[in-house]
Design a protein that fits this description.
The complex is a heterodimer of chains A (about 850) and B (about 220). Chain A has about 850 residues and is of the alpha+beta class. Chain A has 26 helices and 22 strands. In chain A, helix 1 crosses helix 11 (about 295-335). The radius of gyration of chain A is 34 Å and the shape is elongated. Chain B has one domain (about 5-225): P-loop containing nucleotide triphosphate hydrolases (Rossmann fold), CATH 3.40.50.300. Chain B starts with 6 loop residues before the first strand and ends with a strand. At the A-B interface, helix 1 and helix 10 of A face helix 1, helix 2 and helix 3 of B.
Chain lengths: ~850, ~220
């Protein structure tokens, strides 16, 4: 215990003498950043997940073609989960001599569990937000149902055998999907009226959605318990699977949050490693004296360990508090964009920030500290005796293991972790080696240079190993900042490209072939031009190479779902522009050729040249796989699993499908369309799309703030890191002055040395970042890679400027103070 | 004192050889030495004669390549570094040419340090008293940077004597000081040595200083002559 108090005393004395300033600053920045990002990411993730859950109207949904066992509901109740049920089916409605195929949705009392419904009471009143569906005896319908059946609000609509009063026009339902029941005009009724309609008989085609909401732990537990019990016709729905466009955006945003955490940790790690190294070197003499006064090796280690532990706890506590305020400020700045109710900060995230601080401190500080243990007491007589450096294996494996664990913890993505660590290691090693060789070779040119150049360059080439580690440390800090900036910019561009302002927000199905031209004409009158209409033939894949598909697919796979229903088959002369060829070459002239989507092919184990058999109505069709392609699902355009060569599908019953953009104020045009083309079905996705865009805007803003945070941390650490390398330079510069070197010479030499250091670090950082970005984009984030020439120009310049100015500022003592004063302080 | 005639340090065939690019180099060889408790001994010789090496071996700061050293009846050569550190803490004090004070600590804290390493609760009181004894009671809170060379060496003396060590090793204690200040320091060193009945082993190339010790040994090319 007495040793612990002694350690405390020494720590206080060190703190008072300013020895710890850089180290404490680096640590506080590290903890502040990691706590802020950890808390921010956690709260944002949970807020966004809740918001995303609104797209399912619940946290968890079981779809089933039959009722689920009562026991399953009881299990949910035991876990305090709320539950609701919707039943969706199609039925023909007849009113005023008009007929309409409508999508009925019977909803239970608590529907929707997440999100809300929107409806109006007349044409002219504003939309209201409603948190429950229609009351018993009432129905809410799409406006098109009223126009098609010549009804008005307050009239009665007979669904099956049950007359229901139309009380609202429904304008938005959160969980509207793109399937058959949702495509038809909506009629929403209360679940209690379902039986009275007598529409559902045994064997009726109906889809039940059993919805659950509650705490994430309870949901996870329920999901785990239910999953093994599911029948082949039942399925758990998930935001990533069932709303891929939103799922992809969320995944990418989450990955970016993870990446930002890693970047800040990496930056902080570099700063701590550099400042502890400086701390350690400045303590060689003090340690030698302590050893001389009788301190044992382990006592030395214990003294420093205790000091760092106390330092870590204090800095981590301060960092956690600052981090807390930083993320509160972030949320405050974003308050207009984020949902009114933001998820509360979780204790786990707070502790994660705190322990991350301690872990970074010891992961990066332990190797230099271990070196202190080896200081010889003989150093009191012979100052030149330096302790052996801790083995490289220990230094690097400690820091590396720590970084790997932290990266994995923040991303929960093994592939991303491996890419960053593996790629980073290889790149660091290669560039380190190249730099070392270059610096050693530079020595040859020194005698031919002017004095200031020679002195400036000597600082770098005298100890190439130390210079390489300095350059790499600066480069890694810069690299982290570049990564943060570039990935963010490309991510946002990608979203912007994916969903431009005029992205299609309406789908139209069932356009008959003979109406295609007049339909296009009608769109043209509304200034909707360049619209592609894609032919659709409904068909089901039944055999692969004459083997029934059911024997090939595995349960719950994408392949299984695709073979359980009719697919929309199409033909095309040219493939859609955003589709990418994976193998084969598209030949529209090859009769019997089919192009298949990559993931479905993988799930069904389909290869090039395989024979596929489809049933189209009562007929069978054979086709050969001649092309495999990747589809960009997250565009608001019709996409197809199977594209045939035009002649292959000739003669089969065909309808056409398209999508287009229609501004909200022109919505009445839809009624004109329905009137002129009664067969068509319109799917309005504008409300969903609007909400999706709002989420993207929120994520974008959040990501921007994270970037500013990472850049701030990066610059601060860069300055701290430059400062931690100055001791030797100040000492040598002062000696030069005592030997008669002029101030101008020293100024020039220092400026040259730091500029060179900045320039080389900048170039290395760009080289490293381009390599990592290429790997990340190609294999992890699936974004398009392109060389960013602005980086090549800008980063070396910025780096040169920052390092030169900071370094020059740091060593200005050499030329401003008397050499005697500086030497005494050294 | 009853310990006056006890041999506090004994060496036998003591030597130190270091490898160099031209083969091995004998820095010290065949040193046979016996030092009695309370005795003052000066080790003199030219630069490079092996004085500081001998001091570092006798104090347990370094290990010999030949022979052995007995310090207070314990074989230093058979101890590991931690064993030697413990022995240093218990019975050895040092004064160095370059003072070797911790720059971040005040004069008082520097003197308290060896006591604190022993977990002595009276550290502050004892350190203050000794600093008062060396005439620095008005400089307790000053860091080494704010002290003159002479003052720094007086702090170092206080630190060396504060634990009342059985043996004090002094390596060129006046080497960094002007002659007048050096004289003051030497006066103080011998006074304290007398008061505390410490065995003094002094390395110097100053014959006048060496003559103040009870015995002098001379080294030349690593050998006692």
């Amino acid at each position: 215990m007495s040793r612990f108090f002694l350690a405390l005393k020494l720590l206080l004395r060190d703190g008072r003498s300013g020895e710890l300033t850089v180290l404490v600053l680096a640590l506080i920045i590290a903890v502040t950043s990691s706590t802020a990002i950890s808390l921010f990411a956690d709260r944002l993730h949970r807020t966004m997940s809740t918001q995303a859950a609104e797209f399912l109207a619940a946290d968890l949904v079981i779809t089933s073609s039959t009722l689920i066992p009562e026991q399953w509901i009881k299990e949910a109740e035991k876990l305090n989960l709320n539950h609701a049920r919707t039943a969706e089916f199609s039925t023909v409605l007849m009113e005023n001599d008009e007929i309409l195929l409508a999508g009925i949705k019977a909803v239970s009392r608590l529907y929707p569990l997440r999100g809300y419904l929107k409806a109006t009471s007349s044409d002219y009143t504003e939309e209201k937000i409603l948190h429950n569906g229609p009351k018993q005896g009432e129905t809410w319908t799409d406006k098109r149902v009223l126009s098609a059946l010549k009804l008005k609000l307050g009239d009665h609509l007979i669904v099956g055998e049950k007359p229901l009063k139309i009380s609202q026009i429904i304008t938005y339902e959160p969980d509207k999907r793109g399937d058959l029941y949702s495509l038809s005009p909506r009629v929403m009724i209360n679940d209690a009226d379902l039986k009275a309609t007598q529409v559902l008989m045994p064997g009726s085609h109906v889809h039940y959605f059993f919805q659950f909401s509650g705490s994430s732990e309870a949901i996870a537990q329920y999901r785990k318990g239910i999953k093994p019990l599911l029948h082949v016709s039942q399925r758990l729905m998930d935001i990533h699977e069932d709303r891929p466009e939103l799922g992809t955006a969320l995944s990418r945003a989450e990955r970016y949050l993870g990446l930002s955490s890693i970047i800040v940790i990496l930056i902080a790690g570099v700063a701590i490693a550099m400042s502890t190294r400086r701390y350690s070197e400045r303590h060689f003499n003090a340690t030698a004296i302590l050893r001389c006064l009788g301190c044992k090796q382990n006592e030395i280690l214990w003294l420093y360990f205790c000091q760092f532990l106390v330092l870590g706890v204090i800095a981590s506590t301060l960092g956690t508090i600052f981090g807390w305020f930083a993320q509160e400020t972030l949320f405050h700045l974003l308050k207009d964009l984020l949902p009114a109710k933001v998820a509360n900060p979780s204790l786990i995230a707070i502790f994660m920030g705190f322990f991350t601080g301690l872990a970074i401190l010891f992961g990066f500080a332990l190797p230099p500290l271990l070196r202190l243990k080896k200081v010889s007491p003989l150093r009191v007589l012979r100052r030149e005796l330096e302790p052996l450096p801790t083995s490289a294996w220990l230094v690097y494996s400690l820091a590396l293991s720590l970084i790997s664990i932290l990266i994995w913890r923040y991303t929960l993505d093994l592939k991303m972790t491996t890419t960053i660590i593996g790629g980073g290691l290889i790149i660091t090693f290669i560039f380190g080696l190249i730099l070392y060789v270059c610096l050693v070779q530079c020595r040859k040119f020194l005698p031919f240079l002017s004095l200031s150049w020679r002195f400036g360059l000597q600082g770098l080439v005298r100890n190439p190993k130390a210079s390489v580690s300095q350059i790499l440390a600066f480069s890694i800090t810069l690299l982290a900042m570049i990564l943060s900036y570039t990935v963010r910019t490309d991510l946002l561009d990608d979203w912007q490209n994916q969903l431009p302002d005029n992205a299609p927000n309406h789908f139209v199905l069932n356009v008959f072939p003979e109406k295609v031209n007049s339909f296009k004409q009608q769109l043209k009158q509304q200034n909707i031009i360049n619209v592609d209409l894609h032919p659709v033939v409904r068909g089901r894949l039944v055999k692969i190479n004459d083997v029934a598909v059911q024997q090939i697919v595995s349960k719950d796979s994408q392949g299984e779902r695709a073979t359980h229903r009719d697919l929309s088959l199409t033909w095309a002369e040219e493939l859609p522009k955003d589709n990418k060829t994976i193998s084969g070459q598209w030949d529209s002239q090859q009769k019997g050729g089919v192009s298949i989507e990559e993931k479905l092919a993988k799930s069904l184990k389909i290869k090039m040249g395989d024979k596929l058999t489809f049933t189209l109505g009562s007929q069978q069709l054979d086709a050969t796989v001649s092309h495999i392609r990747k589809v960009q699902w997250d565009t608001m355009k019709p996409n197809f699993y199977m594209i045939f060569s035009p002649e292959t599908l000739a003669g089969y019953a065909t309808t056409y499908i398209t999508s287009f953009y229609l501004a909200e104020e022109n919505k009445n045009f839809l009624n004109t369309l329905v009137k002129n083309f009664p067969s068509i079905t319109i799917l309005e996705v504008d409300a969903v799309l609007k909400q999706f865009k709002t989420i993207l805007t929120q994520l974008t803003e959040a990501i921007n703030y994270l970037l500013y945070f990472a850049l701030f941390a990066g610059f601060t650490v860069l300055f701290a890191a430059v400062y931690s390398t100055l001791d030797n330079r100040i000492y040598e510069g002062t000696l030069m002055r005592t030997l008669g070197a002029s101030r101008a010479l020293l100024r020039k030499a220092h400026l040259l040395e730091f500029s060179l250091l900045g320039l080389i670090s900048g170039f290395v950082a760009v080289l490293m970042s381009e390599t990592i970005i290429y790997t990340l984009y190609t294999y992890v984030l699936h974004l398009d890679y392109h060389i960013n020439w602005m980086l090549w120009m800008g980063i070396p310049l910025i780096s040169t400027f920052c390092i030169a100015v900071t370094g020059y500022w740091g060593v200005r003592r050499v030329v401003r103070q008397s050499p005697m004063q500086v030497l005494r302080e050294c | 004192m009853s310990q006056t005639h006890i041999n506090i340090i004994e060496t036998e065939n003591l030597g130190k050889t270091v490898p160099t690019s031209d083969g091995s180099l004998d820095i010290l060889s065949s040193v046979e030495l016996t030092i009695k408790s309370g005795e003052s001994l000066a080790i003199v010789g030219a630069s490079g004669s092996g004085k500081s090496t001998l001091l570092s071996l006798l104090a347990g700061l370094d290990t010999p390549t030949q022979g052995f050293i007995m310090l207070k009846g314990q074989n230093l050569t058979s101890m590991d570094e931690d064993g030697r550190a413990e022995l240093r803490n218990q019975c050895v004090g040092f004064v160095f040419q370059s003072f070797q004070l911790l720059p971040g600590l005040t004069a008082l804290e520097n003197v308290m340090l060896p006591l604190e390493l022993r977990a002595d609760k009276n550290a502050k009181k004892l350190a203050s008293a000794l600093l008062d004894r060396v005439g620095l009671s008005h400089r307790l809170t000053h860091t080494p940077m704010k002290l003159s060379g002479g003052e720094q060496q007086r702090v170092a003396l206080a630190r060396a004597f504060v634990t009342e060590p059985a043996i004090l090793f002094a390596d060129e204690p006046t080497g960094n000081l002007d002659s007048k200040t050096g004289e003051h320091i030497i006066e103080l060193l011998f006074e304290l040595n007398q008061e505390k009945q410490t065995t003094l082993i002094l390395v110097t190339h100053d014959n006048a200083l060496a003559s103040r010790c009870q015995r002098t040994i001379k080294l030349e090319a690593g050998r006692m002559i």
